[in-house]
Amino acid sequence: MTIDRTIAPAYKAVTEINFPQVKKVILTNGIPVYVLNGGTQEVVKLDIMVGAGSLYTTKKLVAPLTGLMLNEGTTSKTAHQLAEGFDYYGAYFQPNTEKDQAFVGLVTISRYFEQTLLLFFEALNESIFPEKELQTLLERRRQKFLVEMEKTSFLAREAFNEKLFGAQHPYGIKTIEAFYHETRRDELLAFYKEHYHAGNYSLILSGKITDEVLKLVDQYFGALPKQNKPQAAAQTIIPALTYEPVVIEKAGAVQSSIRCGLLTVNKTHRDYIKLKMLTTILGGYFGSRLMKNIREEKGYTYGIHGMQVSLQQAGYMAIAADVKAAFTREAHHEIIREMEKLKSEPVSETELQRVRNYMMGEMLQMFDGPFSTAETFKSVVQFGLDFDYYEQMRQAILSVNAQELMELANKYYHSNKLTTVVAGKY
Amino acid sequence: MITFEKYTLNNGLRLIVHHDETTPVIAFNLLYDVGARDEKPDKTGFAHLFEHLMFEGSKNIPNYDTPLQQAGGENNAFTNNNFTNYYITLPKENLETAFWLESDRMLELALTSEKLEIQKNVVVEEFKQRYLNQPYGDWNLLLRPLAYRTHPYQWPTIGKETAHIEGATLQEVNDFFYTHYAPNNAILVVAGNVNFEEVKRLTEKWFGGIPKRKVPQRNLPVEPEQQEARELVVERPVPLDAVYQAYPMVARQHNDYYVTDLISDLLSNGKSARLNQRLVKEQKLFSELNAYITGDNDPGLFIIHGNLNQGVTFEQAEKAIRRELDLLIQDEVSDYELQKVKNKAIANLIFSEINILNKAMNLAYYELLGDAAAINYEAEKYSNVTPQRVKEVAQKLFKTTHCSTLKYKAL
Lengths: 426, 411
Hints:
By secondary structure, chain A is of the alpha+beta class. Chain A contains 15 helices and eleven strands. The radius of gyration of chain A is 23 Å and the shape is globular. The N and C termini of chain A lie far apart (about 60 Å). The model of chain A has no long low-confidence stretch (mean pLDDT about 95). Chain B is of the alpha+beta class. Chain B has helices spanning about 45-55, 65-70, 95-105, 115-130, 140-145, 160-165, 170-180, 195-205, 255-270, 275-280, 315-330, 335-350, 355-370, 380-385, 385-395, and strands at about 5-10, 15-20, 25-30, 75-80, 85-90, 185-190, 230-235, 240-250, 285-295, 300-310, 405-410. In chain B, the strands form two sheets. Chain B has a six-stranded mixed sheet, sandwiched between helices. In chain B, strands 7-11-8-10-9 form a five-stranded mixed sheet, sandwiched between helices. The interface between A and B is large, with 80 and 82 residues.
């Protein structure tokens, strides 16, 4: 059988997506639980979303350290006993403090859900922050920080956040070594008392969620006393007003890390989804304009990525790349040129259709398996949204036209107001 | 339990199909039995450079990525010392697009010297980004030639030096393709909500006409037993002193592999593991300390890596590590502790089967090792390990004369 290999097989653009059902359950004390039941494996993941991200304090290390210290000792168990417990059942205790929310996760095989839930509950709610464990952790983190400070990518990211959000805002505060000496136990304890309580929890359950699992969750979490939810410290974002590139010289660097971007809007704004499409065209996938230009045509970099990020108090667009040191300026100019092009030339129908199909395929994958689905849900529930956000995204992807994208580029891509940071050589 | 069906084409291509109705996407995974171990010592980094060139268009399809993106698919690939793996995920309606793309680049590439030059640049930047522009980034470039004197595991996948990549010619690249890229040197796994007969038909249609190629029998030099401890000390502008130790271990298919894996878990998997509890938390000698195995197809390495706390000497650090290894050699591990690492290993096997792409990759990998069905016996193999076996294997593994040590002295 001979086949004509020059002709692509027919393909169907994905237009429909079966968004999984999210079941909302309210525990006895009113805590909401979002249930994503599914998958083929006997596993359970429990995520507690706590309004306890970095946003809630101007002491840079307090929020993440509070998360990391949760399983370092409770009223009845030492750090060692907790570690033994989770390890024995092959389970994971995963504290992950982001800029806005803190997520504390338990991942376990179904068989040991009850045993590990008990440990998890205790670590989350009865933590005592032993001084000795804190000192060990601070010292380890300090040394890790010293290693990070040798990386151009870290230096660029820190400086970029500072310029974009201002040095006083929790999103922008830079880490300095002294913080590892100054952070005190009572600060963590106060932060913990204020933020880690039932009134501030939302639960997300994914995997094989049986009635038994739900019963256990209610038995523990449903019995917690509820308090009032604290408000976020309403800091004002004061971005840098000069747009000259900030250069952090790093002796001996063979590559420069470039970070540039600007403030836009977040997920709650009507422009966000289409802006995300625009950023995808610019730098959000392997076939993006920046990837083609700077990697595939010029070979200046191993990878360049553009992203549209949504935070509680801000949205921003950022471009990141590590480039051949001698071509740093060229790469920077190309980034600006590609942004400008989106403002003056409409995207061709072919390119637009490709990005549509790519983004639809990407969306399908976000719902592949219970744990990916839970991650996807976490990214919207913290903005008070649900999977309807993805339905809107689906519609926007299918309906957007080149004119709208060009208008958005003109509205948001002010390349003369780009915050640019280069660590390495410029 | 992962169920699958298997079929071999006349040209030698092996097909494995796994059915999973719960996912809307298909994982299409094509593994080639060629890795950095198949390179010549003066032309290293080739297998990986070649992986980049596989995305530069094939005989009938000028651009690989665009049609896949149009079909809503995503793809990537990785190369290691043992094999090269290409993978695609895409909506199940568009499965045939994956067949079309992958079969054409197995048939023939459309390489030009311009494309080669650009990808050489990209790979050199990757080399810099991962190995040269990072503190301790070159440890793998230094430790491997210390631990291996004859086997090609003595260089990392990225290659010994950027000059090898810069020197690659179009002729060499083309030769590499016809030597190693062949249906009879590949394993295809298709996983998702698919029908075996349909996948078989598509495989015959797109891959069936690709001729079998003459793939040379792999005949790698065997690493002789190490007779004396080796050491390399380098001075670098890094913030902390660091130590890397390597002990030769068995090949992936050896019976001792599972025991060795559990030994690395006893030492360092999880917060409660020995090295973490004793040397990091109690004695505060290290800020980071890890033990793990490379688990290579040929005899690999058991690696211990630590960053020393400020004020701790290399002597103190090495003594403390040695004391832990001696404990494994002298005393049998308790049933409780062994059960703990077994539970963890088995839970991790279950977690690795959640994602459809992971399942496809795992099936291809076990087929490469000899039989995809082995994927379902892994848990049993871990369960069968006894305290006595742990002690026996530790005795063979941690001979002081087998140790290669790399030290970074902070300047």
